[in-house]
């Protein structure tokens, strides 16, 4: 059974960097053709795809987030991490990690940006 679990601080101050880690169990982050994504949902909005890291370590980002987003992985720990810099209150959202094509989703974690 594949499980994804997000972890990280629930409160971040404006202008700081948000950092979240997704721990994968039940499969490997290097499984062929898997694309491991970060997706968020802000209050009152739909799901926003932020970016992904592929099974071979390549990354891709939404133009909306590219300038301040970085995704990297630790294959030894079977984890991948999102960093979002220069956050504002508009970055308050529930953040999900997922491999959407296989319908693998974490439960999501709420991050609030506030001073």
List strands and helices in order, with pairings:
Elements: E1 3-7, E2 11-12, E3 18-25, E4 35-41, E5 47-54, E6 59-61, E7 69-74, E8 79-84, E9 93-99, E10 104-105, E11 109-113
Parallel strand pairs: 2-11
Antiparallel strand pairs: 1-3, 3-8, 4-5, 4-9, 5-6, 7-8, 9-10, 9-11
Explain briefly what this protein structure is.
The chain is an all-beta fold and 115 residues long.
Description:
The strands form 2 sheets. Strands 2, 4, 5, 6, 9, 10 and 11 form a 7-stranded mixed β-sheet that branches. A 4-stranded antiparallel β-sheet has the order 1-3-8-7, with no helix packed on it. A hairpin with a 4-residue loop joins strand 5 and strand 6. The mean pLDDT is 97. The N and C termini lie far apart (39 Å). The protein is mainly β and 115 residues long.
Q: Which key features would you list for this structure?
A:
about 120 residues; mainly beta; 7-stranded mixed β-sheet; 4-stranded antiparallel β-sheet
